[in-house]
Fold this sequence. Notes:
Keywords: Hydrolase
InterPro entries: HDAC_classIV, HDACs, His_deacetylse_dom, His_deacetylse_dom_sf, Ureohydrolase_dom_sf
Family: Belongs to the histone deacetylase family.
Pfam family, one: Hist_deacetyl
Structural class: alpha/beta
Number of helices: 10
Shape: globular
Number of strands: 8
Distance between the termini: 7 Å
GO molecular function: histone deacetylase activity; hydrolase activity
Amino acid sequence: xxxxxxxxxxxxxxxxxxxxxxxxxxxxxxxxxxxxxxxxxxxxxxxxxxxxxxxxxxxxxxxxxxxxxxxxxxxxxxxxxxxxxxxxxxxxxxxxxxxxxxxxxxxxxxxxxxxxxxxxxxxxxxxxxxxxxxxxxxxxxxxxxxxxxxxxxxxxxxxxxxxxxxxxxxxxxxxxxxxxxxxxxxxxxxxxxxxxxxxxxxxxxxxxxxxxxxxxxxxxxxxxxxxxxxxxxxxxxxxxxxxxxxxxxxxxxxxxxxxxxxxxxxxxxxxxxxxxxxxxxxxxxxxxxxxxxxxxxxxx
Length: 300
């Protein structure tokens, strides 16, 4: 059974000018239920990730200051959200969702988090709507518990997974792969194990050709025991923060390629939704929904 992390806290209310990005966390599960892609049995409500797990990845002093709402105004501006206790709790629950989903993926072959993909969170700071890094925490959990010996993080959000790259820069058991807009945020890129910077305006054909060139080879070379997939839909041509030109069909084919490779190789995969900032909320929800539809078709 496809298990999906979701909690009412995911749709945490924000000031009016920040609410739009949060709408998908309410609308996406509603759409999936309405169309019959999933039932209520597919969803699980995650618990907050324990502090002991958070500090396996994040600096203890950063976590303390975040928890106590002691970040400086400059640090808060870099995260993009006004800081509050509710926002921190939301983040901690999302982290728990990805860690729990990783266990479900080991059991069923694939699991998903409606939220997550918080790849701009570093060991000691947050950036770009990310306070803590869920894929990094999930990968560290699997390594610590002996549930995986080699983890591949496939980050196909339009923005480089800079925080994830920094966190695992000295960890040979985690291979970080980021295919992203070369001229997009962040201005300063970190160094992933493999970075594929993309030119502005690249469309379906060029994008998919590059992905088909790199990812099958990585699956063979890295031989991962587990894959975390950051499947942001800000690669769409309609995205306000992206500079690429993928169609919905191209974005869906991207997901199909990743999920079919994992399925073919027998490698469990945990998907986190990542970014999506198209002007029409329907475009965001439809692109994300395609990932869930494919998960059901390929794995179940």
